Amino acid sequence: MRESAMLQGYQSIATEGEFAEALSQSTERPVVIYKHSATCELSEVAQHEMCALQKGGGPAVFEIVVQTARPLSNHVEEYFGIRHESPQVIVVHKGQPVFNASHLKVTETTVQEAISALAES
Predict the structure, then answer these.
(1) 4-23 pLDDT, tens per residue?
(2) 72 in a domain, yes or no?
(3) 32 part of a folded domain
(4) Is 89 a domain residue?
(5) Domain encompassing residue 62
(6) What is the count of structural domains for the chain?
């Protein structure tokens, strides 16, 4: 069983309805949209980072596996106007993207810093 499957606030999403639910949760606190490639070693490292974020009591993480949820991945790109990358993380607060990063910048630390900056503003 994948590590992410055992975490309470870590959820794989594949439909626009599930994405809409993630957005609705962002009205209360920031959430993370994480685009994952099942065939990329760098994505595997990033996935461990997102699991570490969750284990540390971080925000809800909504994972989109791009190979199995390509239409949703494309929808997220169009919805936010943020070019698709993978791995990629988008922090969403009050329905709006407030931070995004890709590749080696998808880390527990960068996401925590982005969320901390929200609390300070």
Answers:
(1) 554 667 999 999 999 999 99
(2) yes
(3) yes
(4) yes
(5) 11-103
(6) 1
Q: Please state the pTM of the whole predicted model.
A: 0.92
The SS3 assignment for 91 reads strand
Per residue in 16-52, pLDDT tens?
999 999 999 999 999 999 999 999 999 999 999 999 9
Q: How far apart are CA 3 and CA 119, in angstroms?
A: 29
Domain of 99: which CATH number? Answer: 3.40.30.10
Helix H or strand E encompassing 68 = none
Q: Order of strands across the sheet with 31-36?
A: 10-12, 61-65, 31-36, 88-93, 96-102
- Please give the structure tokens belonging to residue 90: 């988008």
Angle at 88 (CA atoms; ends 9, 24), nearest 5 degrees = 45
Token pair 């993630």 in the structure block, residue: 22
DSSP 12-61: E--SHHHHHHHHHHTTTS-EEEEEE-TT-HHHHHHHHHHHHHHHTT---E
CA–CA distance, 42 with 76 (Å, rounded to integer):
21
Q: Tell me whether residue 118 is in a domain.
A: no
What confidence tens digit (pLDDT) does each residue in 52-63 have? 998 878 899 999
